[in-house]
Amino acid sequence: MISLKFRFEPPFNEITKGTNQIINFENELTIKELLEFFKEHFGEKFYELLWDKKKRDEFSSFLSIIINGRSYRDENFLKTVLKDGDDISFLYLYFGG
Predict the structure, then answer these.
(1) Residue 38 and residue 47 in contact, taking contact as beta carbons nearer than 8 Å
(2) Lower CB density within 10 Å: C or N end of the chain?
(3) Are 34 and 55 in contact (CB under 8 A)?
(4) Distance CA 36, CA 90 (A)
(5) CA 27 to CA 51: how far, in whole Å?
(6) CB distance 9 to 19 below 8 Å
(7) What is the dihedral of CA 55, 57, 7, 94, to 10 degrees?
């Protein structure tokens, strides 16, 4: 069993009903598997925040997913294997005044 720590910043925390959560999983999983879990657990609205509205196969340019203090955006990102104790933040970068 692995335990992952999550930080959900706005607007994700409105969907997850909290900012900090620890979720346990039976086995290690990839980012892709995690995002599918969130789609099932938190619904389509959470999932839609992840993806570009025009290019559904690309992450939103406003999204930053940070794992253990590092932001990832390479082509192998969805294959990244998460391990026990990983700290994952979902941030949405807003611009303007």
Answers:
(1) yes
(2) C
(3) no
(4) 15
(5) 26
(6) yes
(7) -10
Give the span between the Cα atoms of 3 and 30, in whole angstroms.
Answer: 14
Phi–psi pair at 26, nearest 5 degrees? -65, -40
Q: What is the pLDDT of residues 39-86, one digit of tens each?
A: 999 999 998 899 887 876 788 888 899 999 998 777 788 999 999 999
Side by side, the strands of the sheet bearing 63-67 are: 20-25, 2-8, 87-92, 63-67, 70-71
Question: Which residue matches tokens 């720590």?
Answer: 5
Residue 78 per-residue DSSP state:
G
Amino acid 43 reads G
